Amino acid sequence: MRDDLKQAHVQSAIAKASRRILPLIGLGYLFSFMDRVNIGFAALEMNSDLGFSATVFGFGAGIFFLSFALFEIPSSMLMSRFGARRWLARIMITWGFCATATMFVQTPLQFYTVRFLLGVAEAGYFPVVIYYLAFWFPKSARGRTISYFYLFGPLASVVLGSVSGAMLSMDGIHDLHGWQWLLMLQGLPAVFIGLFIWRFLPDEPAYAEWLTTEERAGLQSILERESAAIVPPARQGIIATMRDPVVIQLALIGALLVGTGITLSVNFPLVLQATTKLNAYEIGFVVSVSGVLAILAMVVAGRISDQSGSRFAPAIACALGSSAGIVLVAMHLSTHITVAAWLLLSCCGWSQALLFAAMWPDLLHPGRLALGGATIGMVSQIGAFAGPYGWGLAKDAPGSFTPALWGLAISTLVTASLFTLLMRNTRVSRRAQPLPIERADAAAPDLGQQPDPA
């Protein structure tokens, strides 16, 4: 009876945390993703208006991820000093202003500079979020939790595809180009989300006034037990973290996975335009549908990984599915097949990314998670920089997207191989501690007054 009561408290705590925290952080991720890749929709008009070549655009799109990578570790270290709530709010407010400032660029140098500053502003967001969620949700609920957070990424594709065509059609209003309206209207909301995070996001469970004493104790107990099951690092510090074999393998996977995903997200509107002759509204519809399907796929992938106790098998399957989708796009068989391949690629790519992120707290000790996550994020963003720039070079040389697509297909096959290698090498790949947690909404949350910030 006592154990049942304790589990009920844990269930209630997780349900409350899911409802209070995930929507706000998720909205931050939605605008984070939109402000990274909406440049792909802006390019439908911006490149011709400003005379940017594919190489100029690819370098500008990719340099964001270079600065993002360079400042990933410093940002995570500063988070430890200022706290998650304050630091996430700072990230969102500054990146909102930088994203909006992109509307004023006129030359390649200005484009590169603003994109670089946007990367500096946004650096650290994702590792800080994963670190933060690891101190709220136990392993047996983590796959679903991160899937609920991660689904805001494909939801961003739905929003982006739904509104971007209309925003581009605002060309000429108040003497602004359509792409300028798009960048402004999709950049400024991040500032307001940042202010809400500052006001309402608790730093940790101990400061969440909407949890009862029993809920806090039950949640902290299971989190401490899971933390103790992970072998602590023998040495701490940046150098020791960068030499950790698990961190190295996760970082290599991240570089390939994120590089491929960002390259496709930024350039796929242009691929559809060139290979299918769809207009901006039709391309937006395809992107929106792919986002909806990706949301469903991610929820399923998160639940499967929680129930099986392993992230690896579904991640490998998703990597192989992504490679198949890219190959079909590269073959240019027909408009219908190209669109269907993009839908497959979107579902597999987002699910693969979700499972990859869920591996971080599963495999890394809490004492290494902050710097380890920042290191993984840093290397991942180097891949995100190299991908779009390499894509531009590969496209400009032969004048076709095909060689670049084949290169990305090979990249996803290598990713699947690295997942397999990590599965064999890691010492922490066991099933989560049993906890009969149903859907996050199984326990009715406290819908009372939001707490004051800690």
UniProtKB/TrEMBL annotation:
Location of the Major facilitator superfamily (MFS) profile domain: 21-427
Subcellular location: Membrane
Transmembrane segments: 21-44, 50-71, 87-106, 112-136, 148-169, 181-201, 246-268, 280-300, 312-333, 339-357, 369-391, 403-423
Membrane topology summary: Multi-pass membrane protein
A Gene Ontology cellular-component term: membrane
SUPFAM superfamilies: MFS general substrate transporter
Location, primary (coarse class): membrane
Any one GO molecular function term: transmembrane transporter activity
Keywords: Membrane, Transmembrane, Transmembrane helix, Transport
Signal peptide positions (record): none
Top-level taxon of origin: Bacteria
Protein name: MFS transporter
